[in-house]
Amino acid sequence: MTRHISDTVTLYNGVKMPWLGLGTYKVKEENEVKQAVKTALELGYRSIDTAALYQNEESVGKAMKESGIPREEIFLTTKVWNTDQGYEETLRAFEESRKKLDVDYIDLYLIHWPVKEKFPETWRALEKLYRDGWVRAIGVSNFLIHHLEDLKAVSEMKPMVNQVEFHPLLTQKELLSYCRNEGIQLEAWSPLMRGNQLDHPTLVELAAKYQKTPAQIILRWDLQHQVVTIPKSVRPERIAENADIFDFELAPEDMEKIDQMNQDHRFGQHPDRFRFD
Questions:
Q1: Residue 105 annotated as catalytic
Q2: Of 57, 78, 188, 207, whose CA is between 20 and 30 Å from 99?
Q3: Positions of the site: Lowers pKa of active site Tyr (predicted)?
Q4: Mind listing the domains of the chain with CATH numbers?
């Protein structure tokens, strides 16, 4: 059981990935994202998640350098955007991200969305980047079971990670079970439901029981489902709060109460209905 912010899960290729990371979606302003990343690293976070789409890779890279923490101690994730998918396009996009981040390698490179007809070629590029040592692990984001099955049919390697929308209103039990069986690590984006439903009676009740906040209850629920989680915040006190989840454990019946909140409700887009143009 995860007991410390430095705890990691071992991906199927042997690479260790922290259970908790900082998300940086929609944090474009240079000083804001730099301060958030530096605060997180000071507090013991060792995983930072960004993407080409977020337009903040340069600031993330600068913050990592300015933190003084050795590069090899930080697990860095970025993603190839939909308009850059395809084999050659992905290789170019990766190099652009790597230069913006100003690093020699990326720890985890993800396909951001399953762009139909393109993601198999995009994946082939990721396999090459992995074989050539530019990335330590490769994975996907927003892939449903049928996307993963399609990929399996045409690829040499399975994704090491699948980063998806996952929270108490969208528990994705079938996908979680599938990924577990396949040795693919599930990772939660928007774990805190973009700030919605934190006043849900179940979360309020459990927050009182464990003397924690509703957000901390959710993040602990993630970890106990063996789901990596990357809550986003730019506020130092919230970044600290999100990390204060390693000194308690939810009872099985309380895990079940949160599971029962599921409504298959998405705050983001549905992967099968995403407009890629």
A1: no
A2: 188
A3: 79
A4: 8-197+228-248 (3.20.20.100)
